[in-house]
Amino acid sequence: MRTPADAFIIVLVVSNFSLLGSSRLRALIRIAAVQGLVLGLFPFITQAGAFSAHTLIIGFGGMLLKGVAIPLLLFRALRGVEVYREEKPHVGYTMSIAAGIVFTVVAFWAGAAIPKSALFPSPSLVSLSIFMAATGLFLTIGRAETMTQIIGYLVLENAIYCFGVSLSSSQSMLVEMGALLDLLVGVFIMGIVIYHINREFDSINTEELEVLKE
Amino acid sequence: MALICAPALMGVIAKTKAFFAGRKGPPFLQTYYDIAKLLRKGAVYSTTTSWVFKAGPVVCVGAAGAACFFIPFGTLGAPISFTGDVVLFMYLLGVMRFFTVIAALDTGSAFEGMGASREVFFSALAEPVFLLCILSLARSTQGFRLNELFSAAPPFHMAPALLAGASLFVILLAENARIPVDDPATHLELTMIHEVMVLDHSGPDFGFITYGSCLKLWLFALVFVRMLLPFHATAPGVDVLLTALGMGITGVCVGTVESVMARLRLLRVPQLLAGAAALAVLALLSGEGAIL
Amino acid sequence: MISGALCIGSLFVAPLLGVCAGALPVGSRGVLRAGAGAAAMQCGIVAFLYRAAGRDHRIFAFGNNLFLDSLSYYHLGLVALVFFLSSVYANSYFSEEIEQGTFGPKRARRFGLLWNGFFAVLTAVLCANNLGILWICLEATTLISALLILTRGNSASIEAMWKYLLLCSVGIAFAFVGTLLLSVAARAAHVPPGESLLWTSLADRNGMLDGRVMCVAFIFILVGFGTKAGLAPMHTWLPDAHSQAPTPVSAVFSGVMLNCALYCIMRYLPLCEASMGLRGRPHAMLVVFGLLSIMVAAVFIPSQKNIKRLLAYHSVEHMGIIALGLGFGGLGTFAALFHTLNHSVSKTLAFFSAGRLARHYGTHDMAAMKGAVGRNPLWGPAFFVAILALIGVAPFSVFMSEFQIVKASVDGGKYAALAVFLFGSVVVFVSALRHAIDVCMGKRGPVTEPARWFPRDFALVIACVGLLLACGFHLPAWYVDLLRNASAIVEGTQAVSGFAGGLFQ
Fold first, then answer.
1. What is the total count of domains within chain B?
2. Residue pLDDT, tens place only, A138-162
3. Range of B151's domain?
4. What ipTM, to 2 d.p.?
5. Whole-structure pTM value
6. Which residues of chain A does B282 touch, with a Cβ-Cβ cutoff of 8 Å?
């Protein structure tokens, strides 16, 4: 383990595995919140010493949004919903963890293939983003409950955030905050949808949404 | 030394569980008394069994005892050591399990068969994970003998050690039929995995089986402790003491887990083992010289 | 000399006025009328800006983060036109619901807020020079339009909204990765950090961006924005969203939102093309997606039963044709841009008639709608004409633009692509015509409501049909000029004013 960043990478990878293996909806939200908090710490780690106002705002803003605001929105959305676990996912839980292992291997192999250049200063973070993106997509596609699909989308956004951080770019603050805000509004609207779906169908399982076919 | 101290570990576990339950618990050396008592008794054999049934317990103890010769304790080297002996170690444990299983099948009873199938299923998942953990250790020490793996002084990396240690702990629980995989104190045959396989053994046979499982637990705990504490102290005695202390702590941990958790549903055990596999893979990837 | 900020700011006045009207306590009709008025005002403002903008037609504002050039003007004009038509139509469409009381002031205000908000955000997409702002605004369009789909809160529309929201959010996330990769390449090419996402600075530094990074970035961009544009195989949200949204919203989706997503791809195209050594790889990718969309549409159109889903799959096909034209380049780009106008107007007309016919017959099922020409003398023939226009019957303008694309492919020697394109188009031609004949001719089917129309409906139909015919015959010089400049921007070459070659001399 060469840098403190590696510790964070391991924590995030383990959190991804727990997302893949967990079936309780509220636990999923908590794990995603923890991921958001840890990711918010990333800009402080990768740019150690160069604490510009930009880094501070992105870091704290990210932690606040991903770790606090969005999980709160999601918990509120689940308030009226009587579902606690995902009973019948499209892909079973053991299979999900096995798929996660495959993603890990592929992601880190891909990251090792990227030469460490000025463009990509930390290939291990790139591997982590690939793995998290794969996890997020897997959760969105392979699960049937609406809430799990939203969590998958959040993990995908986390992966992209991680990728952005790994590029150690002094990205325009406007763009980063705009992206985070978009995410917040998106989750807010998804919460509204969950309310409507629950009210209409009495469950939030997307298997119920099958009126519109070919 | 293992041959003598192994049952003591069981005592530690029993004491811990009793502590959590608020009782005083059986005496520390109870397992010794149990084995001695069993050895004095007579054995009863069913008419449906064959020589396999009689051979099972003997092979168990034999294999476990043989495995003890390969694993070092602290910095005391193992009596026998050659390249690749880790594979022999695993296979000896496998032979032990195999003979337990076929002895159980030999009785022709439904309960034993059920327990045998469950045991084999879980071990099919657990053995590769064990191998992965050993591999991650081997990667960091660059050696492939148990002696080297455990006696060398590799640079200590926290992350792979923790991950492999966590994975190994789960494997320890799974292979030795402890909660959350199997409840050693249950009396309902339908919920048993390991106990039901040895249900029909009696007298000295059962004594041998008990002793064999004590040895197996001892061996796994030894691997676990060495995984987490692979450093040297200057005085050789300190190392031995530290390892012994580690074993004790392991016993306390196992007892704690047994007291705090309930047994998992059988459906969930593969998920648990898959999680352990994931941790082992991560340990492998994050070890020295690896990709991370 | 008017300042750039004032010019670009003026573009937002009209939609924001509409949003404010949505917040005021006016009645339902008032909200809808305000929307139409705002759109009309916007048309005027765009035209005025274009005239007043000077020789190279570029305006910058807000530290070069916003700007307008010919491509933006063209699309802004298109957005304003379609919004105007749809807002006028919304007045007729919701009139029955207003009378029945199901479209009360509260719902109308919410609709007005979302409608005009959508208008404003689409305008922002078209004004963005900073590609990050472009992305943010396109994501915002997804969010606002998702709420618009939910106007009628029944179970099918909830399902459509969910699929749309999730799929487009994931797609746009991919597009963000592409944007990040672009900024990486920009920094590697030593673009100053404040300008690393500005389109104008990147376009000026043609060829200095790292080719491999831009290749990967373009793939992400194409998949990401292509999801929003309805290119196959990411189009699966399209039929559901278009069929479940209220008709004015569907018209705006098809006519404008898909075009804006393609606009984003058009912005990235010259950057990627230049950095990859002008070997045509991005163009090839566009051709592949375009052909795939056309074929998917050709497969699904014959079996459609719902009239709006039919039109939605038609949109997939036309987006494929536009992508194909962009992929061919040269005359193809010109034709693709021309096609955006034709498709928008004809698809808008088609959706209008489909909506009214569905209201008239009480169902969206085409099997129940028969003899529309007889039952509804205004909207029945309008539907038939719209379908004719959409499938490319001469002398409507769609035929002209498709013909130009064919010519572009022949000029470029891309015969395989041409063959697939023609095959797909013929299949769509035949099946859509068959659907149209089923709906319009034949024995009159049962209706649930008497046909009713307003004078503005007549005006709408005549305006649309007139526009389609006029563009088919003759394009005014200023329009050709605008198109030439816009296509030069997409091609990455310098604009040359004057007449276009080819058909329109």
1. 1
2. 998 888 888 888 899 999 988 888 8
3. 30-286
4. 0.87
5. 0.84
6. 10, 13-14, 104
